[in-house]
Write a structure and sequence with these properties.
Length: 314
């Protein structure tokens, strides 16, 4: 290979290396000078550690590529702008009627202003510590409610929702006094426990309450049963009276009809007896029946009489 060809090849290699180095420097500079927000993210742009601008991508307005000076001139801090849940530890609280309950509370919150949040807390853990402390301090509101307002077998008498709203309003009022960049969306009571020292006394009172309710239910049931029995007895007497009246009418009609037959039969009693015996025989011998009886016994004696009459005719 000639020296001229070798020089050309070396020149090309140097050009390629220079171009590759320029591209690497460009991409590094591009990476350090741009940033982009993900969905449900917020960010704070700082210049020499001082917050100068905030970004939120909840509604898509601040989406897209953004420019900044490379570090250490400017830096971007990213935060999650979605609603977050914070649980408090179990703590005792005295109610208005001097009962002690153990509460486990929680709250949901989100970053509303990234710049104010960065200036106040800078980190999520610092904000969680602050909110947990505020939530614990707001427990005094539970002291405005009685034990029955928080634990009751009658759901209509429970005021847990009122207590949650009161605590929420108190925390909201405290946050509005300063620009913390935080927004609280809900405060709730997760669990209500009883100290072991008073559990048996509370259960005893609940047992007495349930026994009283059961006795009231039994008394009400006895009263209803007594009313039903009284109504049934009244209906029974009315039905029997009606049936007796109908039966009396039927007996009267039968007696009247029988009196007519008795009046007719009285004119010839022997003929009446003979007719009755024939009716009895007709009823008894309606089916194919074999009877072994004394012919002297009524009404079968008329069979003998009829046989005797037939022999005399012959």
């Amino acid at each position: 290979m000639s020296d001229s060809n070798l020089n050309v090849k070396n020149s090309i290699l140097k050009y390629i290396n220079s171009l590759f180095s320029i591209l690497i420097i460009f991409f590094v500079f591009f990476y350090m000078s741009t940033f982009q927000l993900g969905y449900n993210k917020c960010a704070v742009l700082t210049s020499f550690g001082k917050a100068i601008k905030g970004y939120k991508n909840d509604d898509g307005v601040d989406s897209g590529l953004k420019w900044k000076w490379p570090w250490p001139v400017q830096r971007v801090f990213f935060y999650d702008s979605r609603i977050q849940t914070l649980s408090d530890r179990l703590e005792q609280q005295e109610t208005r009627d001097r009962h002690v309950v153990i509460l486990n509370m929680y709250m949901t919150w989100r970053i509303s202003n990234p710049v104010d949040f960065y200036k106040t807390f800078s980190k999520i853990k610092s904000a969680q510590f602050f909110l947990r402390d505020r939530l614990s301090s707001a427990r005094w509101i539970i002291g405005q409610f009685t034990f029955d307002d928080l634990t009751n077998v009658d759901e209509s008498k429970l005021k847990i929702s009122d207590a949650e709203i009161a605590i929420f309003n108190q925390l909201q009022k405290e946050l509005e006094e300063y620009s913390f960049g935080i927004e609280i969306s809900h405060v709730g009571i997760k669990r209500i426990l009883l100290p072991e020292s008073i559990t048996q006394a509370i259960f005893g009172r609940m047992r007495v309450t349930r026994q009283r309710l059961a006795q009231n239910a039994r008394s009400e049931g006895d009263a209803i049963a007594q009313s039903i029995r009284a109504q049934a007895n009244s209906d029974q007497k009315r039905i029997l009276s009606f049936a007796e009246r109908i039966a009396q009418d039927i007996r009267s009609q039968g007696d009247e009809a029988a009196a007519k037959y008795y009046h007719i039969f009285k004119k010839d009693e022997d003929f009446a007896i003979y007719i009755r015996n024939l009716e009895s025989l007709q009823t008894m011998l309606k089916e194919n029946t074999t009877l072994v009886l004394d012919t002297e016994t009524a009404p079968f004696n008329i069979l003998k009489q009829g046989l005797t009459l037939e022999q005399n005719d012959n």
